[in-house]
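Re: duplicated header lines in exported structure tokens

Our pipeline writes sequence and tokens for each protein into one text file. With two proteins the header for the second block appears twice in some exports. Here is an export where it did not happen, for reference. First protein block:
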Amino acid sequence: MMRYSIWGPHKGPGLLAAAVALVTVAACSNGAPTGAPTPPSPPTSSGGTSASAVPTSAQPSPTPTPSRTYPLSTAPRTVPAVRDHEAARGPGWKPTPTAGIVVAAGSEGLADEARLLAGELKIAYRGAVAARAGDVELALGGKGAPESYTLTTRDDRVRITGPDQAGVFYGTRTLKQSVKGSGAMPEGTVVDTPAKPQRGLNLDIARKFFTAEWIEARLREMADLKLNQFGLHFSDDQGFRIASDTHPEIVSEQHLTKAEVRRILALAQTLHITVVPEIDSPGHLGAVLRAHPDLQLRNVQGTPRQGAIDISKPASARIVDELLREYAALFPGGWFHVGADEYQALTVRSPAASYPQLAAAARQRYGPQAAVQDLAEGWLNDRAAVVRDTGKVAKAWNDGFFRGGVVQADEGIEVEYWTGKEIGARPPAEYLAEGRKVVNLNDEYLYYVLGEPNQFTYPTGRRIYEQWTPLVLRGTTPVPARYDPQILGGRLAVWCDLSGAQTQAQVANGIRMPLAALAQKVWDPAKPSMTWEQFRTLATRVR
């Protein structure tokens, strides 16, 4: 896009300037003092006049000013970084008082994205009208992977296109960050797509209540980082935090109303974030069991196990399934997390001896070789089937998928891998070798546990940025790269084991940089080009 002056790339104004200089030298070389009359020039042999006698009207015109040129642009600086930028020469785009956001014909479904961007850039939203100089146009269309987009800056205009609304929305996040960080969007074309389809944050509101406003603020923060999944763990031993119509007796005093949840879900939808609810079972059900103590798991001596439900009793399955169906109807997204981790019956030396009722139920249902482990695996499959009947995909924690046994976990359940330390936990390569799809919540890097109990330490953005990748599912060692297509993405997880250790504001501040680092690593598989200090500075500037 190099632009030249009217003199062309080789014929610069230097030739004309040289001619003018020659004329000047000729006029001044007769030796007359400055200000003295100039004697008449003698005639030339051809009958013409000398150079000093050239008429004024024949003197060269002033040198024209060359047209402006620009250096090649550089990629916009955003978090996460754009994956491909085709540089060009030009001034780029800046919001001006006359600029506006428009949607292309046939793309009226992008009105929400356009209005949001207009408010953020403080320019007008003009609707489905033709774009003009200074405008930003949003359009659906073209080929590409889900959530991808193309952003073209040329001729004082920006055009953002994508095959779906989420992709166009992510293009608006790139534009917003670039303008906030540098004041402009560079000339050229961005072609961008996420490396992983699931990217996000997990929040435990069961142990510590978080307000709807706090959650909404995190959703907005996530959206600017192009994160698209928000896990909501709202049932555990310490609390059940969403109002229930089927079982109001289990709901904690501090809880979200369904109106608040619908408000959160409406915001999430506009930000292209899926909220994934979680009701963990057969462990972590203390809040439910306080209202239904007859369902509490007890060992052969009659001692209750904290948070564990007796899965040999039909009433246990009935109450959990009623809750799954109730909240599957409330949450419109495509997933439901059914937990399955840390079932206390399996943490003792001999589950069959300690819990003979579970062992008898396992043999009755699955045959004489079945054990308590098989009954627990069957419980997981049954809950996954309930979720599947509502049109959703089930997720479960990795330590609910057992090695060997008579019963195997359903192949369609997504493995949420968090640890290798718990009973039943296996190396991640085992799950992958079975062909299972896995999401990375590695507790070594991605677990933000309030109060740092059990040797947990608060994750740092730097450590995630410099050391972690989606292949690092357990500890610090990556699985073989051939498994990369089976790893669906990753989430940072906030757990509130010691709920009073931090305030809501401290949690928000503490996860800010880890969340930015995670966003970078699940969007772009390449090694980051910036140092951590450069990345941290940029993340502060553009967000």
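Second protein block, exported in the same file:
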Amino acid sequence: MTRPSRPAAARRGRDRRARVLVAPPGAPRVDGDRRPSTAVVGGGIAGLAAATALAERGVAVTLYESRPYLGGRVGGWPVDLQDGTPATMSRGFHAFFRQYYNLRGLLRRTDPALERLTPLPDYPLRHSDGMHDSFRHVPRTPPWSALGFAALSPSFPLRELPRMNAAAALPLLDVRVPDVYDRLDPVSAHDFLDAVRFPRSARHLAFEVFSRSFFADPKLLSAAEMALMFHIYFLGSSEGLLFDVPSAPFPAALWEPLAALLGRHGAELRTATPVEHVEPLADGGHVVTTARDERRHDTVVLALDAAGLRGLVERSERLGDAPWRERVARLRNAPPFLVSRLWLDRAVASDRPGFLGTSGYGTLDNVTVLERYEDEAARWASRTGGSVVELHAYALPAGSAPEVERKRLLDQLHRVYPETRRAGIVDARHEWAADCPLFPVGGYEDRPTVRTPDPGVVMAGDLIRTSLPVALMERAATTGFLAANALLERWGVRGQTLWTVPDRGRSAPLRGLAAALGRRNAPHGA
């Protein structure tokens, strides 16, 4: 079995209404005999974005990462399969949407045409009752995207539309950041959808599938975060819901080339080196302590997940002030999730998509067939006649047992793709974690911002609060660049120009209608 010929490289286009944020003017690089130094704590997307922007402009960067690899939750590491094949394991599938302007800008440093990304032809969804949905033929430009989806989707039966509370849905047409948090953060995504009275089938196939991409149950997720998500991916951007995926494992496609670039700029990458303590100094600098040594740096970028950030701040008693430390201590992680990757001794059906979102199959949220797009999996499948299949379960209930959930995912795979019942498992690898940020109802104000009480310490990551319409991997990349820009401004150096989707609804009449009626009909608590 061979992988299909690779589609054309990901396009370079950008929504004509995309917003540009030009960095403050300044010198192209730092001046003087002594380069300022920055410790970047965390080697995920946020930390790599910050490190890249700083190192490119002459800052002496030391990046500390506790894992032995870069990329954070989008990283990968080598494994040896039971058949002796070397392979790469990761935390699972990630979709690189066309709206991820700043993340894609980071990747273009080493891949100007994004040739290491390949587009998947569709974002298919399937419910256990047999209903299917697709975004392949839906128009990309709002409001035709919403109208087209309603017209083409079997999950929006016409008989159900009169029952909807259209006025309650109007906030989706008038998303502005941070105003959307003022209006909807006190409401859960579940309660918002109840108030709108979306058809149940559409709710399962569209809204809940997307809300669970935040690794949270809709009853726990802020409705503001869900509304922002729909603005970014559907109602506010003309990029559509199609996406690209790396055509090789994450290290080879993304992070090893970027690590080499950072090395050429003089950055020091210290993987497998967790930071134990950060101590502010009287002269404005900071001492970063690891198990191996202590080093002084002029400034620090904290680009950690919620648990890592809480732990480091707790151990660093003099970092920040009391209110900031209390907000950090209140950050919470989303429920645990499970990724199971199976190397099967026979192929799944040839018409199976590279990615399938699922609903109604117990805890199974999606299925990926890696050889459809990843070169390493394609080589293994071609040599053995098998398939490499990945299963995701997001937001598992508290108290779930990993062994039980693994079996449940396998049972659901057999329901989704019945031909896999006959397949033997050559090898299986499982990742169980609970380190994604939770965006709970009413939690927006507690989330930290890029700037901290210490002017020499800035923060980055997908948990960071920002006034820009970004989420998930794009929020990580964007806040990484924003953190670098905040430090560069101190030294009179011009930072990174950023792009985002439009920062408000695209249609002025619809925005006006939403403003006039939305507040009167908002869900209780908004």
